[in-house]
């Protein structure tokens, strides 16, 4: 049974994800009204994502110095204020591409601090119980998918059609509601740290902790390789859907929905029984192999229904991998380092997506639209072979034993 406080955290995260999805749809639409150049419009999306690789390590170090609950609600309040200022700028006619780039970067920075603090706060709330953490991460992942990918973008687009700054005003309210809920959560102690150390020294310590620990490095490499593979696939997905599967725009939308449905099933239904049956390490290996096989089958598919089913399997495997990895990391990493380890792991994984997207576009242009999927499946399976010993059941059991002693 999940504690009542977690339900408030889950509600806050769901509302916050809804706001994230809404502004991620509305900002590019607003940019398109201000400038029709595709490169300029794409820079708004880049600005939203830029804080994760640029400031992730520093955010982790600061989260480990601050009250994590306060960091979450403060990030929400600042984002709400920023969106109110955006609405005011629209009313006064001050909106421009440079203004949107600044807004996008600051909103992305707020999301970075919120997500890192939430991941670090959760183990304190659930007393580092691996079963509860797995269930909680599954619920949070499911909420992020449902609110951030299903509901948020359509809501943001619909509100934009009614008024170009309306989504930002409504979005500000979602962040205020999230902040109010988070302020009701129980206080968690700020981890002790060595006095006199710089933020940079703390950030380096967190990154080194990941790189030197084979289990944590394996947990970081799994999503990194997954992002590399899925970045390659996602970059040409719309072309693949049109040319290889002959899907109309509506069919493409259903294809994306199929992946999200698979992700919900994996995060909220399947991950627990699979982990209980196979153990965490074997479950991580099996989900990676399943992802590789499903990506290959998807890339070779000619029937759109079969392709949709394989895309759902991809989403399911990816969601299970993320839930298992996050839950295990939250148990085995000391509280004083958790923010930095989360940030360092996310830095490794986030940096792989743009590389994969560039490779996918190049492969599709030079060898055909199906080739990125074949290459992605090979990469996924090969990396599974490399990392399976790093995240084996035996190594995980040893790490869990040390965490209990600690």
Give a written overview of the molecule:
By secondary structure, this protein is mostly helical. The protein folds into two domains: 4-182, MFS general substrate transporter like domains (Growth Hormone, Chain: A, Up-down Bundle), CATH 1.20.1250; 200-405, Up-down Bundle (Growth Hormone, Chain: A), CATH 1.20.1250. Helices cover 84% and strands 0% of the residues. The chain has 17 helices and no strands. The radius of gyration is 21 Å and the shape is globular.
How would you spell out the order of helices and strands? HHHHHHHHHHHHHHHHH
Number of domains: 2
CATH superfamily of the largest domain: MFS general substrate transporter like domains
What is the CATH architecture term of the largest domain? Up-down Bundle
Distance between the termini: 26 Å
Uncertain runs are none
Give the mean pLDDT.
87
Query: Which CATH first-tier class of the largest domain would you pick?
Result: Mainly Alpha
CATH topology name of the largest domain: Growth Hormone, Chain: A
For the secondary structure, the number of strands is 0
> What does the overall shape look like?
globular
Strand content: under 5%
Structure classification: mainly alpha
The main β sheet shows up as: none
Subunit organisation of the chains: single chain
Radius of gyration: 21 Å
Estimated helix fraction: over 70%
The helix count comes to 17
